[in-house]
Amino acid sequence: MSSVDSLLRAALELAAADVPVLPLRAGKVPFGNCRTCARNMCGGRPNMKVPGPCACPRPCHAWAAATTDPTVLNSQEWARAWREAAAVAYHPGGAGLTVVDLDNAGAITWARATLPVTRTVRTTRGEHWIYQGAMQSANAVRPGVDIKSLMGYARWLGPGTGTMAALPDAVRALAIKTSPARRASQALTVPLSGGPGECRHRTPAYLDRGIAMAEQQITGARNAVHATVYRTFLAVLSAHGRCGCLTDAHVARLFTAAQAKGESVRHCTDAWTNARTTLGL
């Protein structure tokens, strides 16, 4: 069996088990977007809960290209990618899973002393600990430890050993502690010099509708994404930043929408901070 056949067979087996998969190039990186989809000109796939390709038939959009559709995996458009592929990856969040990527011996020692025992897969330099349950992905949550789940991918290295445990709060807490969105939302709880403003959000739907509109504005940006993100953050903070109603989840939704358009975490944090400064928050 050729390497192409071997990779495709593994991908089809995973897809049959409802695990979204995609090909990886050498260096464990996904295939780049085609010319039509470059810089998310096609609209991309901003919804972190619904992985899958856009109208483009190629394996574009990195983690969002992951699919369980055997017709897509066997398609002519994906054939070239499989011929050039070096490995199979999967989207853990799309399968309802979270991978704690332990990159060295020190990280493994920490996990054994801190986290519940779960299914383990050996990697080139360490181990993947796989839990049942999805969460936001986060890099460098501590030395040698990354979290791969929603909006992320992990290389398929086999089924591993052991019984899979439920995603523990200890893992969720790692992402919260290191998230710029968390730090930004925490700053909103600090009272203003003139005292907190009056809350106009008579129902949760009022705030949620505002956040949804902000997400749509960011997602719909075709150009000047940096400026759009800043203006949107400014508008949200202007409307909701003085009464303490914004939660970590609300801010994380805005950061997620911006990152889906190609913005870095650092830029999101800077844009949020600049918007707060402009408004005197």
Structure, described:
By secondary structure, the chain is an alpha+beta fold. It has ten helices and ten strands. The strands form two sheets. Strands 4, 5, 6, 7, 8 and 10 form a six-stranded mixed β-sheet that branches. Strands 2-1-3-9 form a four-stranded antiparallel β-sheet. Helix 6 (180-187) packs across helix 9 (248-260) and helix 8 crosses helix 10 (265-279). The protein starts with a helix and ends with a helix.
Low-confidence stretches: 44-53, 178-196
Mean pLDDT: 81
What Rg, in angstroms, do the CA atoms define? 20 Å
First CA to last CA: what distance?
62 Å
Structural class assignment: alpha+beta
What share of residues are in beta strands?
5-15%
Biggest sheet record: 6 strands, mixed
Task: Determine the number of helices (DSSP H or I, runs of at least 4 residues).
Answer: 10
DSSP E strands, number: 10
Helix content: 40-55%
The helix/strand series, from N terminus to C terminus, equals HEEHHEEHEEEEEEHHHHHH
Shape category: globular
List the helices and strands and how they pair.
Elements: H1 3-16, E1 21-25, E2 29-30, H2 70-73, H3 76-84, E3 87-90, E4 97-102, H4 105-114, E5 119-122, E6 127-132, E7 138-142, E8 145-148, E9 154-155, E10 165-166, H5 169-178, H6 180-187, H7 204-219, H8 225-240, H9 248-260, H10 265-279
Parallel strand pairs: 6-10
Antiparallel strand pairs: 1-2, 1-3, 3-9, 4-6, 4-8, 5-6, 7-8
Helix pairs in contact: 6-9, 7-8, 7-9, 8-10
Task: Please supply descriptive tags for the structure shown above.
alpha+beta, 281 residues, four-stranded antiparallel beta sheet, 10 helices, six-stranded mixed beta sheet
